[in-house]
Amino acid sequence: MKKFFPVLSRDKATSSVNLEASETQHPSESIKVVDYELLETDPGIRPPISSYHPDIQNEVRKAYLKIGRHKPPYNFVYPWSVQGNQRRRFCKNWFDLYDWIDYSESKDLAFCLPCFLFKNVSKYGGDYFVTEGFGDWKNSHRLANHGTSSNSHIDCVHMSYALTL
Ligand SMILES: [Zn+2]
Asked: Which stretches make up the TTF-type domain (predicted)?
């Protein structure tokens, strides 16, 4: 069974997610409210878009686009991990290099915001950036490849732009 998030919706069309307050709404009204403060922003633990009722998925996407990419505080110390015979970690300048990249402090993994937002409606599906995150720091060229060569990513970026127009 799909898990919906009733606190995010006051849409009369989605009876399964109505709030008590919606009983006072006029039947012709369709008010969709996404409370930004209730959205989990850490990409390692935020619920997938597909877990929201389809009627509010675009509102949730818009909210995430307004909030922007998840970045740790400036003084956050990115943890080292030993990969091969070298210590590696997430590089802060990837936020500048890749305008789509998200970072999860809780998982120490990189994610892709546009892919997270649109993977469930992209005809190309998605890749590990969305569901599993990326932590293979020694092969960081894969980050560049994701941004330029992934059909799924390019499709998701286009849909992100379209939603903000
Ligand atoms: Zn992507």
From this structure: 86-165
Asked if 92 and 103 count as a contact pair (C-beta separation under 8 A), the reply is no
| CB burial string 46-56: b at 16+ within 10 A, e below | beebeebbebb
Rounded to the nearest whole angstrom, what is the distance from the C-alpha of residue 37 to the centroid of ligand 1? 24
Mean pLDDT of 78-100: 93
Domain membership flag for residue 53: yes
74 CA to centre of ligand 1 in angstroms: 24
Quote the tokens at residue 11. Answer: 């849409």
Range of the domain at 96: 6-164
- For the chain, what is the domain count? 1
- 60 within some domain: yes
Distance 97 CA to ligand 1 centre (A): 14
Closest CA to 159 of 128, 127, 119: 119
116 located within any domain: yes
Instruction: Determine the pLDDT at residue 33.
Output: 64
CA 108 to ligand 1 centroid distance, Å: 17
Rounded CA separation 33/89 (Å): 38
Distance 100 CA to ligand 1 centre (A): 7
Look up the pTM and report it.
0.79
